[in-house]
Amino acid sequence: MSDFGSVSLRRLQDAFPDALLGSHADVGDATVTLDPAQLVAVMRFLRDDEVTAFEMLMDLTAVDYLGKRETRFEVVYHLYSVARGHRLRVKVAVPESAPEVASLCPIWPAANWMEREVWDLYGIRFEGHPDLRRLLLYEEFEGHPLRKDYPKTGRQPLIGPRG
C-alpha cells in the first residue's frame, strides 16, 4: 500500500477498530471495506481528519454481484483530498433483502444526486436522504435497469404528456 494508504489505514484502524472489514492497494488504488453500520462516522472522520482531509466525494456508484457473492450489492465511494492530493475507494456491502445504506448528504452535499442516481438505477435506498426520487428515469418506470436481473426485453408503461 502507498505511504498514504498505510498512514490512513492505521488512522482508521486506531479510530474505528471494528469498522474496517478489509483493505488492499491493488494496482496502487487504496481501498477499504467498511461495516455499513459505521459508514457515516468513518466518512465524517475521513473528511475532518487533518491527515486524510477527504473534502471531496468524487463519485458514488454501486455494483451488482448477482449470484457471485453472498451479499448482492456493494456501494462504492471515491474520495479525493484536494489539500493532500490523495484518493481512497470505500466500499460497503448492501444485502438484497434490505438494499439500504445511510445517506452521506449531511457530510458531502454532492452525494445528493449521486445517491438519487444509484437509487434510480440499482434500487438501493439511502436512509435519511432529503429527496430520494428518480433522477434519470420517469416516476412510472418499473424496476431498476442496472440490476443484473432486469429483463433486457421488458416493456415499460407508456405515459402521455403532462399537463
Descriptive report:
This protein is of the alpha/beta class. The protein has a domain at 3-108: NADH:ubiquinone oxidoreductase Nqo5 subunit (Beta Polymerase, domain 2), CATH 3.30.460.80. It has helices at residues 3-15, 39-48, 111-122; strands spanning 20-24, 31-34, 56-64, 73-81, 86-94, 100-102, 125-127. Strands 1-2-5-4-3 form a five-stranded mixed beta sheet. A two-stranded parallel sheet has the order 6-7. The longest helix has 13 residues, at 3-15. The protein starts with a helix and ends in a 36-residue tail after the last strand.
Secondary-structure map:
Elements: H1 3-15, E1 20-24, E2 31-34, H2 39-48, E3 56-64, E4 73-81, E5 86-94, E6 100-102, H3 111-122, E7 125-127
Parallel strand pairs: 2-5, 6-7
Antiparallel strand pairs: 1-2, 3-4, 4-5
Strands across the major sheet, in which order? Answer: 1-2-5-4-3
Principal-axis shape = globular
The N- to C-terminal Cα distance equals 57 Å
Class inferred from helices and paired strands? alpha/beta
- Could you tell me the mean pLDDT? 91
Oligomeric state of the chains in view: single chain
Largest sheet: 5 strands, mixed
CATH architecture of the domain at 3-108, by name, is: 2-Layer Sandwich
Quick one: how many beta strands? 7
Helical residue percent band: 10-25%
What tags apply to this protein structure?
21% helix; five-stranded mixed beta sheet; Beta Polymerase, domain 2; single chain; 163 residues; globular; two-stranded parallel sheet; alpha/beta; 26% strand; 3 helices
